[in-house]
């Protein structure tokens, strides 16, 4: 009888002593590192190669993105608290923290949707200086016929230029990964009501641990994207 109870754990273990599901998620995250690494490398290779605008400094709003980044980082803290709760067998606290994590992740996606919409409908408006005060490189075509005011739509889409293509591809794929993560978290929240969360408590909360690894990975990737695209990219531009 004792041998029968130990069998399921033996089936899940690998020669390393780590559960095969955890080995699989690590292998998956390793492939994801190469995937996002290639997207970031592509963005950097084509950085500044666009023939026409707009560029990073024209549309990127660091203040708004800083807030959304803070929200995503706080979701990682909620994820840690949810895993801590389930590893202690506290299903009620787990539900609270896992739901908070999903809400913060959804909030980040809301910020991203707002940002993308603003980029696509970016409106440029400025006062035209007198002709004698215009610098040599001033775009006279923007203030033709002695106009004193200029405004135009200056939107950014994947079809606008190389910057638009690489930017939306990189951040769009990350947003898709966050969406998958939110769905995963909500499924765990719903699953916790099955048999009072006994399935989640089993194996020391391994199912939650796997989701936590994925979620932390998504957060780390965003930190790299935020640094390369928003902080360094706008400053260099």
Topology, element by element:
Elements: H1 2-12, H2 20-45, H3 56-59, H4 62-87, H5 91-120, E1 123-127, E2 149-153, H6 162-191, H7 198-236
Antiparallel strand pairs: 1-2
Helix pairs in contact: 2-6, 2-7, 4-5, 4-7, 5-6, 6-7
How would you characterize this protein structure?
The chain is mainly alpha-helical. The chain has one domain (about 20-110, about 155-235): Four Helix Bundle (Hemerythrin (Met), subunit A), CATH 1.20.120. The protein contains seven helices and two strands; from the N terminus they run H-H-H-H-H-E-E-H-H. It has helices spanning about 1-10, 20-45, 55-60, 60-85, 90-120, 160-190, 200-235, and strands at about 125, 150-155. Strands 1-2 form a two-stranded antiparallel ribbon. About 25% of the residues are buried.
Structural domain count: 1
CATH superfamily: Cytochrome c oxidase, subunit III, four-helix bundle
Share of helical residues: over 70%
Strand arrangement within the widest β-sheet reads 1-2
Based on Cα principal axes, name the global outline.
Answer: elongated
Q: Please give the CATH class.
A: Mainly Alpha
The rounded Rg comes to: 24 Å
Tally of DSSP helical segments: 7
Q: How would you spell out the order of helices and strands?
A: HHHHHEEHH
CATH T-level fold name: Four Helix Bundle (Hemerythrin (Met), subunit A)
Overall pLDDT: 82
State the total count of DSSP E strands: 2
Strand residue content: under 5%
Give the termini distance in whole angstroms. 69 Å
Low-confidence stretches: 1-10, 132-141
